Hints:
43% of the residues lie in helices and 25% in strands. It is α/β, with parallel strands linked by helices. The protein has a single domain (3-133), classed as Nucleotidyltransferase, domain 5 (2-Layer Sandwich). α2 links the parallel β4 and β5. α3 (96-106) crosses α5 (117-133).
Amino acid sequence: MSRILAIDYGKKRTGLAVTDPFGMIAFGLKTVKTSELMIFLNSYLYKERVKTLIVGDPKKWKNQYFDLEKDIQTFIKNFRSIFEKIPVVRVDERFTSKIAKDSITYIKLKKKYRKNKALIDEISAVLILQDYLG
């Protein structure tokens, strides 16, 4: 049994989500500094079996990419060079941050949680993973 891992890649922070070992339910994992992402992944993938990495595809309304796409491509290239057997799948992540913010507001979390950008990134990763799982 293997998990599916999803990331919402950002300039400063990257949100992570993962499935249960059966690959059916998405859970928020954590948010890490993007500069420490590969260190975290090395450690996590040493402990857990992951069969697929899902990476958010940041597009604007008219299918144009954000500048962040260059950094994501570099990350994917580095990831594939280290973890050759784990396929990388891209999933459209449009509006995930907005939906994450709205979800936090909807469940009436306190203001400190609504302003927590790390929580928003983690929830965005969950949304990306749920989209992949269908």
